[in-house]
Every structure is written in structure tokens, then in C-alpha cells.
Design goal:
108 residues; alpha+beta; PH-domain like; four-stranded mixed β-sheet
Length: 108
Amino acid sequence: MPYELKRASNGMFIVSLKGEQHEVLFTSGPFSKKSSALEVIEAARLHGANERGFELKRAVSGNPFFVLKATPDRVLGRSALFESEGAAWRAMQAARKHCGTIAVLDWS
């Protein structure tokens, strides 16, 4: 499924990766430049193919979520919160499966 590049109401650029059911698997932080958002897509393609790029975490609420990292201190995107670790793990595997996609829908 595709990456989606959108421009938020504040003018910032945001990248999301969609799954087979058109659900958002993960979303990047906001970027002031479109080129920075495009760089995140390229980095996600590279690091998303490797399971080591993903990390399962827990929010303060206790709900699990995952992040995709390029390096230990550079987060490319994060998922929504999940009700269970199993659901987060399945979404993380779906993201890993789709990270290599070349499709980009540019809505910016």
C-alpha cells in the first residue's frame, strides 16, 4: 500500500504508511520542508525492511505502540496506540511488509 504525503493545516508535511485495509500503520512527525518528508519515506523503505528498525514500546497509559527508527536516536514514525501487544505486533509486521513500497500519494 502507499505512503501518503500530506500538508497539515499549519503548513507542515506529514508522511503516513497505509496498510492493506487502508489503515494508517505509522505516521511521521511534522516537517517544514517537503524534501525532509520525502527523505523519511526513503529512510523508511531502507530501515523498514529490517526488523531491527522497529521497536515495540509502551505509552504512559500502558498501551503498546511501535516506532520505526533509522538509528537508535532517529525515529522515522510511530504507530497509534493499541489495546494489546499482539495487535501492536501484528501492525508492526504489516508495516514491515509494506515499508518497501514505491507508491507515494502526494496530497500536499
